Amino acid sequence: MSDAPWMRGLHADTGYLLYRLGLRSGSLFNARLEQHGLRLRHYAVLRYLSAVENARQRELSDQLGYDPSAIVSLVDDLQRLHLVERRPDPTDRRNRIVVLTPAGQQLLPESEQDGARVTDDLLAPLDAEERRTLHALLLRIAEPVESAAAGG
To answer: How far apart are CA 57 and CA 86, in angstroms?
Structure first.
């Protein structure tokens, strides 16, 4: 990072540093995932679907924190790539569920390896203990406990 005087104030701002890290991380992830026709948001959907039996689009929106219209677009993209499909919901015929296809299941381990490489590159300056600490701290601020978010 630059030591220019005007940058010192920004580098003292944790929010700005998190923003820069987010941009850099997203850019590196997207570059790596591009070979599969994916972006980081697609990858998040695939990872979530690999961990649940069935998911409604609304559930994807709620759990991943993406706008419902963004989820529709992401699922459309993934469906065009034959990585997911929409199926009738067996518990409510008015709804559709989203599931990984065999192609999606096959792609997931490779895309996870791509993600791990990006993470290793980003965290190269940190030792193993620092990485664990950073991860724990990021979890605390990225997923605040319900009572803390409600002010209680």
So the answer is: 9
How many degrees, rounded to 5, is the angle at CA 70 between CA 69 and CA 71? Answer: 90
Q: Which two tokens stand for residue 45?
A: 């959907």
Residue 56 predicted with pLDDT over 50:
yes
Spell 105-118 as b/e; 16+ CB within 10 A means b.
eebbeebeebbeeb
- pTM, entire model: 0.80
Average pLDDT over residues 49-62: 91
Structure tokens at 54: 């069935």
- Helix 40-51 with 68-80: angle, nearest 10 deg: 90
Q: Are 89 and 65 in contact (CB under 8 A)?
A: no
Percent of residues, the chain, with pLDDT higher than 70: 87
